[in-house]
Amino acid sequence: MFRSQPFDIEAYEKRSKEGPCFVCELIAGNNPHHIIYEDQTAIAFLNKYPTLYGYALVAPREHREQATGDFSLEEYLALQRVIYHISEALRQVVPTERLYVLSLGSQQGNRHVHWHLVPLPSGVPYAQQQTAAIDAASRGVLAISDEEMAALAQQIRSALA
């Protein structure tokens, strides 16, 4: 459907480690992404560098760095409820054999905790699934136009309604 293009992993890692927080910059309006959901506590948006179609991220609006330790149980469960609803909307819009839900990043880079929601399409060979499916360094990223990303974001927002 979309061709892959090479991804400059070194530049990405440098930004992740040395640059400002990408989620905080997005929330401040300095790092535009295609937003699919936002409320007073969370934001969900399409990944700028998707390895698979429909790849989205969900993050708390407040800068937090631990996937569980920086949240009360109630805050964590509320965020997981958002993740669930975004995941179900993705599954309605994007053909999905399995939806991967991961929290990646570390104190060394991409510190603002966020969850990756990655729809694996049917027919992907097993050796190209799981972490291999999100490895932009070896797979490259999908060449999806801004217009196509905007249309996808709108479809997901509609599925959430």
TrEMBL record:
<feature type="domain" description="HIT">
    <location>
        <begin position="22"/>
        <end position="127"/>
    </location>
</feature>
<dbReference type="GO" id="GO:0016787">
    <property type="term" value="F:hydrolase activity"/>
</dbReference>
<feature type="active site" description="Tele-AMP-histidine intermediate">
    <location>
        <position position="114"/>
    </location>
</feature>
<dbReference type="Pfam" id="PF01230">
    <property type="entry name" value="HIT"/>
</dbReference>
<dbReference type="InterPro" id="IPR011146">
    <property type="entry name" value="HIT-like"/>
</dbReference>
<keyword id="KW-0378">Hydrolase</keyword>
<dbReference type="InterPro" id="IPR001310">
    <property type="entry name" value="Histidine_triad_HIT"/>
</dbReference>
<dbReference type="InterPro" id="IPR036265">
    <property type="entry name" value="HIT-like_sf"/>
</dbReference>
<dbReference type="GO" id="GO:0009117">
    <property type="term" value="P:nucleotide metabolic process"/>
</dbReference>
<feature type="short sequence motif" description="Histidine triad motif">
    <location>
        <begin position="112"/>
        <end position="116"/>
    </location>
</feature>
<protein>
    <submittedName>
        <fullName>Hydrolase</fullName>
    </submittedName>
</protein>
